[in-house]
Design a protein that fits this description.
Elements (H helix, E strand, L loop, with lengths): L4 E5 L3 H12 L3 E5 L15 E2 L7 H20 L6 E2 L3 E3 L4 H16 L5 E4 H7 L11 E5 L3 E3 L1 H14 L3 E3 L4 E7 L2 E7 L4 E3 L2 E4 L5 H7 L7 E10 L10 E3 L2 E5 L5 E5 L15 H9 L10 E11 L6 E4 L6 E5 L3 H18 L16
Parallel strand pairs: 1-2, 1-13, 2-9, 5-15, 13-20
Antiparallel strand pairs: 3-8, 4-8, 5-7, 6-7, 10-11, 11-12, 14-17, 14-18, 15-16, 16-17, 19-20
Helix pairs in contact: 1-5, 1-8, 2-8
């Protein structure tokens, strides 16, 4: 279906990847975003590129495939300065945490994932600024993992999509989806513009359910907030994501560190007890002493779209021909793969069997 008119709603990591691959295939693409590209959840993500805790196996394999897509995309788009795929480190100090890591390493090794135990001194050689407690003898090393600067990635994808003819229209909120019987034919924006299309691809993240509702479809999507803390620049040579006891942190450019206290998906709520960011900063300084006395420069709360089973939702929407949805909590890791698979399904009319467990009609 080369030459198809496709509207992509949402310009985060998923929408930008979908727009690029559609434009690459010859589609006439228009990207609409209610705000600025990357200003939503993608811009407030820890952006850890991984498949460490991704189960079951088919979901793990999708994440591994997209990690490979990240590396290929960086070369494809001229070097990919946004991609830092230099590995990651993790360790625990208590018995429960160590047992959890042992189980994860055993599972991952059995699945062929690059993972190994290294001595604590080897970890310190990789990251000299880390403090690892004397009781910790081994650290998990995952050499294929890393992190992404999400907004520069989005900019590169949209720029290349634009070079191939795509139009990117920020601050264009969709307020209506126009139908002809069962078929979605286009949208109307808040400005009153009407845009027709052969396909509408809903990549609107936490707003995806609202876009679908405008088309007369129901998507069960929850909203799960998570807080990240950004420091002012500190003098550290840290290069990699680190999952230490009680939290995680990584570089964020210009000497800044982004961190969170708690497990990777620890949530934060407006009605939660007081949780000063300085408390989290002090907790992580136990593992990265360069953080001691650092200033909190910003906090961001990313609200993640979450289907009831906490798995992606990718596929044509039942009951509305011409409407396709691509929503994923692991949007940064999975974005490049979704771009390739969605473009193939929309333009070729094929159904990728890897997406079978993740179709939106599983909630029908």
């Amino acid at each position: 279906m080369t030459g198809a008119d496709v509207l992509v709603i949402g310009a985060g990591c998923v929408g930008a990847g979908v727009a690029y691959r559609l434009a690459e295939r010859g589609a006439r693409v228009t990207v609409l975003d209610a705000g600025l590209p990357g200003a939503g959840t993608s811009g407030a993500s820890f952006a850890w590129i991984n498949s460490f805790n991704k189960t079951p196996r088919d979901y793990h394999d999708l994440n591994v495939a997209s990690m490979e897509e990240h590396a290929a995309l960086a070369k494809e788009l001229g070097g990919g300065g946004w991609l830092h795929q230099d590995g990651a480190l993790a360790w625990e100090e208590d018995e429960v945490g160590r047992a959890r890591l042992e189980a994860a390493v055993t599972r991952l090794a059995g699945w062929g994932y690059p993972v190994e135990w290294i001595a604590a001194r080897e970890a310190r050689a990789l990251e000299p600024d880390l403090h690892i407690a004397p009781s910790v003898e081994r650290v998990v090393w995952t050499p294929g993992e890393g992190y992404v600067e999400a907004v520069p990635l989005i900019a590169a994808l949209l720029s290349e999509a634009g070079r191939r003819g795509a139009r990117v229209r920020p601050h264009e909120r969709v307020v209506a989806v126009e139908r002809d019987g069962r078929r979605a034919r286009g949208v109307r924006t808040e400005r009153g513009d009407r845009l027709g299309a052969d396909w509408i691809v809903d990549c609107a993240g936490i707003a995806a359910a609202e876009v679908a509702r405008l088309a007369g479809a129901a998507l069960p999507l929850g909203r799960v907030p998570g807080r990240l803390i950004y420091t002012a620049p500190v003098a550290t040579t840290l290069r990699r994501p680190v999952h230490a006891p009680g939290g995680h942190f990584r570089p964020d450019g210009g000497g800044r560190i982004v961190l969170a206290e708690g497990a990777h998906d620890q949530t934060w709520r407006e009605d939660a007890p007081p949780w000063p960011p300085e408390r989290s900063l002090a907790a992580m300084a136990a593992h990265l002493p360069a953080l001691a006395g650092a200033r909190v420069e910003a906090t961001r709360v990313g609200v993640r779209p979450m289907p009831p089973d906490e798995r992606p939702m990718v596929g044509a929407v039942a009951g509305v021909d011409g409407l396709y949805v691509a929503v994923s909590h692991s949007g940064v890791t999975l974005g490049p793969l979704w771009g390739r698979l969605v473009a193939a399904e929309v333009l070729d009319g094929t159904r990728d069997p890897r997406l079978s467990p993740y179709r939106p009609d599983r909630f029908a």
